[in-house]
Specification:
The structure holds two protein chains of two kinds.
Chain A: E1 6-7, E2 14-15, E3 25-27, E4 34-37, H1 42-56, E5 64-68, E6 71-75, H2 77-86, H3 90-117, H4 126-140, H5 143-158, E7 162-165, H6 167-185, H7 188-192
Antiparallel strand pairs in A: 1-2, 3-4, 5-6, 5-7
Helix pairs in contact in A: 1-3, 1-6, 2-3, 3-4, 5-6
Chain B: H1 34-54, E1 58-62, E2 65-69, H2 71-80, H3 84-113, H4 120-133, H5 139-150, E3 152-153, E4 157-161, H6 163-181, H7 189-198
Antiparallel strand pairs in B: 1-2, 1-4, 3-4
Classes of the chains: A mainly alpha, B alpha+beta.
Chain lengths: ~220, ~200
């Protein structure tokens, strides 16, 4: 199969990505952007991690509790967004829910589905659509920022009352580790190569493109 | 021309041929109207930045009375209560990162408009840095959400979100959109033109 040139997503220089050695990496020779990485067995590992993340998904577990004057309150991630909504900050509440719950859940869900249908080659068309949505969900999933937010909130509240750390905090910690590993290991390029083509007419197939600085060599 | 799935092809003559045969999306040379959109978004973010810092983000009601905190007030309070590490983290996330994003994007836009061809690689790295740090300014929004959710022991103590946090969230979202709408390929355009002229 003829190799097609790759345009650097950051600076548009057209280059050929050479066959990479195991764990090798190809950088754009002009701007230094990572163009491709070889990750042996990446998607098998990612599937395992994503299923693990889906199991741990920690929204229902109490993150922390507060006790003062013999009264106790505890809260979850969704509880935080819900309380903000009730206090009249609907937009901010929606944003918290999106970044802390919806986007991570959608991201894990999409990854699991993508890796499950990966065995069909060529993959059905909607796989391409899902890859876009997965990319979007990953940008808005901010579990690691949320975890730091929880820790700062803990310290702030510790002045006022006794804080009881819930099991949810540990679950969230595990979740962050898993999501990060999923994002690092996931190899979307491999899945793109399996996606079925909508129209295969001869003219639109990659033909030798003129005026390309293939290797970036100065004439 | 390039599609979302990174498929590259030469531009066709008719509109119908300018679609990716693999993912079906429209092929594009560039992000649409990158300069205009990015300028609009960072100006909007800069405007929201003023009320975000002047208005209180949270009111806490304790036995000592009600106290309204701004973003900076929250940092100072954390510093006074002894955890300067956390105060530093919040200061970086809530003050330094949003300002860095605004100034860095404005700098990138201005250098592109002035057709600068200097330090392209550094500017490309600056853009990647802006994209990487962007999400961390959400920190204070999460902090307020959790404090408000937990400190609900009425009438003993309570915490309420205030409108400052709405404007602050707006700054965060607008700057994230701004860095997404900027097209880093623009950085390399003047260098390309110079090379063509020299050949």
């Amino acid at each position: 199969m003829p190799e097609t040139p790759v345009a650097c997503p950051d600076c548009d220089l057209l280059q050929h990505v050479p066959l990479l050695p195991p764990r090798g990496k190809a950088l754009c020779r002009r701007c230094g952007k990572v163009l491709a990485t070889d990750k042996p067995g990446a998607n098998e590992r990612t599937l395992a991690l994503a299923v693990g993340a889906a199991i741990v998904f920690a929204n229902a577990l109490p993150l922390m509790g507060l006790s003062a004057a013999r009264r106790e309150v505890d809260t979850t991630i969704i509880g935080g967004a819900w309380m903000m909504w009730q206090e009249g900050q609907q937009l901010t509440a929606a944003l918290v829910a999106l970044c802390a719950v919806v986007a991570p859940a959608v991201y894990i869900g999409i990854i699991v589905v993508l890796l499950a249908v990966r065995i069909y080659s060529p993959a059905p068309l909607w796989v391409g659509e899902l890859l876009h949505w997965g990319e979007l969900a990953r940008e808005w999933a901010m579990t690691e920022v949320m975890m730091l937010g929880v820790l700062v909130a803990l310290v702030k509240i510790a002045d006022l009352a006794t804080v009881v750390i819930g099991v949810g905090i540990f679950a969230t910690g595990v979740l962050i580790a898993l999501i990060t590993m999923v994002a690092v290991n996931f190899d979307s390029g491999k899945i793109w190569t399996q996606v079925q083509w909508t129209t295969v007419d001869a003219q639109s197939l990659p033909n030798p493109t003129p005026a390309i600085d293939y290797q970036g060599v100065k004439k | 021309m390039q599609a979302l799935c990174a498929f590259v092809k030469t531009p066709g003559h008719t509109r119908a041929t300018n679609y990716c045969p693999r993912c079906g999306n429209e092929l594009a040379f560039r992000r649409h109207e990158a300069m205009e959109r990015t300028w609009a978004l960072i100006i909007a973010a800069a405007i929201c930045y003023v009320p975000a810092n002047l208005l209180p983000v949270m009111t806490s009601i304790t036995a000592m009375g009600a106290q309204a905190d701004t973003i900076i007030g929250g940092v100072i309070l954390l510093y006074r209560t002894g955890s300067w590490h956390l105060a530093l983290i919040v200061l970086i996330a809530s003050v330094i990162i949003p300002l860095t994003k605004l100034f860095a994007l404005a700098y990138l836009l201005i250098t592109v408009q002035r057709c600068s061809a200097k330090s392209n690689r550094e500017r490309a790295q600056l853009y990647r840095l802006v994209e990487f740090i962007g999400r961390w300014s959400m920190l204070d929004v999460f902090v307020i959400a959790f404090v408000v959710a937990l400190v609900q022991l009425k009438p003993l103590m309570a915490a309420q979100p205030r409108y400052g946090i709405l404007f602050f969230a707006a700054v965060v979202i607008l700057t994230i959109f701004a860095s997404q709408s900027f097209d880093p390929r623009l950085i390399w355009d003047s260098a390309n033109k110079m090379e063509e002229r020299n050949e």
